[in-house]
Specification:
The complex is a heterodimer. By secondary structure, chain A is mostly beta strands. Chain A has strands at residues 4-7, 10-13, 19-25, 33-38, 45-49, 53-54, 62-67, 70-75, 84-90, 97-98, 102-106. Chain B is mainly β. Classes of the chains: A mainly beta, B mainly beta.
Chain lengths: 107, 122
């Protein structure tokens, strides 16, 4: 099973700040890495697919990069509505796995 | 608009059974892989099971293998998760999630239902 390790687990940030969340895979997964946002009491929503492709309707301040084992989700100019947990997910091999999540708190 | 609506959650005793259902609309249901992903209270996301669009290919996580059966009825645009021999650690919100179209299984999970809570407790 491929293990995804996100960092940090928690981050407290101010509006307009730039945020970077990383996801490291225990073995190479090419570009089969996806990012989701989950706000409190809501279901997860897809942000980025295949490492860097933005999903329809996602604000342009969200972007992704990386390949192989190291991936990054970047949020430029953070907004208050971005307070949420963020998860990475690999679809390269069975079973599909998720990172443990990164919780963003807005100061 | 793609919509996924789960039903069937509730309180069940350890060792009991439950069948979850998920009705899809707004897309050609039979073309897509469908997944179940769960989230224990206060914890992260865990993949449970998936089924190909025509229902011929299924896989489940080792933690539930032999205790869950995923199936679908494309005439009703519905996917099911039959859960047997339930344990306390199965307590979670269960999400129905759309995967990709076609045969390839390497895909993102693009639309999620609102989730249904399963509580296993005596």
């Amino acid at each position: 099973e491929i293990v995804l390790t996100q960092s940090p687990d928690f981050q407290s940030v101010t509006p307009k700040e730039k945020v970077t969340i990383t996801c490291r895979a225990s073995q190479s997964i090419g570009s089969s890495l996806h990012w989701y946002q989950q706000k409190p009491d809501q279901s997860p929503k897809l942000l980025i697919k295949y490492a860097s492709q933005s999903f329809s309707g996602v604000p342009s301040r969200f972007s992704g990069s990386g390949s192989g084992t190291d991936f990054t989700l970047t949020i430029n100019s953070l907004e208050a509505e971005d307070a949420a947990s963020y998860y990475c997910h690999q679809s390269s091999s069975l079973p599909p796995t998720f990172g443990q999540g990164t919780k963003l708190e807005i100061k | 608009e793609v919509q996924l609506v789960e039903s069937g959650g509730g309180l069940v005793q350890p060792g009991g059974s439950l069948r979850l259902a998920c009705a899809g609309s707004g897309f050609t249901f039979s073309r897509y892989w469908m997944h179940w992903v769960r989230q224990p209270p206060g914890k992260g996301l865990v993949w449970v099971s998936r089924i190909h669009g025509d229902g011929t290919m299924t896989r489940s996580a080792d933690s539930v293998k032999g205790r869950v059966t995923i199936s679908r009825d494309n005439a009703k645009n519905t996917v099911y998760l039959q859960m047997d021999s339930l344990r306390a650690e199965d307590t979670a919100v269960y999400y129905c999630v759309r995967g990709g179209p076609g045969v390839a299984a390497d895909h993102e999970l693009d639309y999620w239902g609102q989730g249904t809570l399963v509580t296993v407790s005596s």
